Amino acid sequence: MSEMLKKFDSQEDEKLLQATEKFHAECALKFPNRQCLTTVIDISGKTVFVTRYLKPLNPPQELLDAYPNDPQATAELVARYVSLIPFLPDAVSFAGICDLWSTSDQFLDLLAGDEEEHAVLLCNYFLSLGKKAWLMMGNAIPEGPTAYVLTREQSHYLIWNPCSGHFYGQFDTFCPLKSVGCLIGPDNPEELVYQRTDKAAAAELQDRIEKILKEKVMDWRPRHLTRWNRYCTSTLRHFLPLLESSRGEEAEEDHRAELLRQLGDYRFSGFPLHMPYSELKPLIEAVYSTGVHNIDVPNVEFALAVYIHPYPRNVLSVWIYVASLIRNR
């Protein structure tokens, strides 16, 4: 056994552990630059076979009901759900400890994890959908060592980035994954039970975030009066759910044209921000980074709207639309 693995207890069969160690050593000789993964450390500090993490797990039913006759749209929605779970590297969640792997249910309970946790959960969901799916360990730009998911479709393969929800064809030159060390396949089936997210609590959080962000914009403009255009804000509130339902695609251009038509007396400048919810600080930083508060043109008005779409297990998709309006003379 390697010196690192000797430090950790294991309930796996000793002969199998020795066989995997031999296999790992042979791979290291033949492919010294490849990441070949056979065992990992779980959050209780035990060495386990990595294949134990892969098993068909049912996604939330509301995701399956959204596109009952479109398997590809369902797969994309499931990938989006996984990408909305906040990213947190092991160096933060398990500071001072080696790379620890959470199971899918532990990941959903913690509601935070790194590339491996996102990839394992997405792979397990795809297995439940009847797809041929593998965990794909490799190197990507800019992540470096990372984990993606590979699925075999009818006549081709797709490579999925579990942290962004994006997917790429097997020959797509724009795929961030530049090399693959190994593919890892599944083991035993299981079923997950999902708790519905409290929609009233999500709506209350949505209103609180919008109020705080507006107060921040005013705080960042101490020498200027900040006027809020209620009509534009109301329009943006109605538009943000459309962005969520279209996953930010297509609807935006149609919306801008409609918005410009309704605000004919104003020059409109703004855009939507989207991110998963973990805490308030990243949302404040995102709005600040737009620099909209730096506009000091006389008679400028502002609009800011927030929409939170709740998914099961308290996964929250947050949209923020921030804009400035200047009346045409």
UniProtKB/TrEMBL annotation:
Residue ranges constituting the Centrosomal protein of 76 kDa C-terminal domain according to the UniProt record: 201-323
Taxonomic path: Eukaryota, Metazoa, Chordata, Craniata, Vertebrata
Any one GO BP annotation for this protein: non-motile cilium assembly
Gene Ontology CC annotations of this record: ciliary transition zone
Organism, scientific name: Myotis myotis (Greater mouse-eared bat)
PANTHER family: CENTROSOMAL PROTEIN-RELATED (PTHR20837), COILED-COIL AND C2 DOMAIN-CONTAINING PROTEIN 2A (PTHR20837:SF7)
Residues annotated as domain CEP76/DRC7 peptidase-like: 99-188
Name of this chain's protein: Coiled-coil and C2 domain containing 2A
InterPro entries: CEP76_C, CEPT76/DRC7_peptidase-like_dom, Tectonic-like_complex_comp
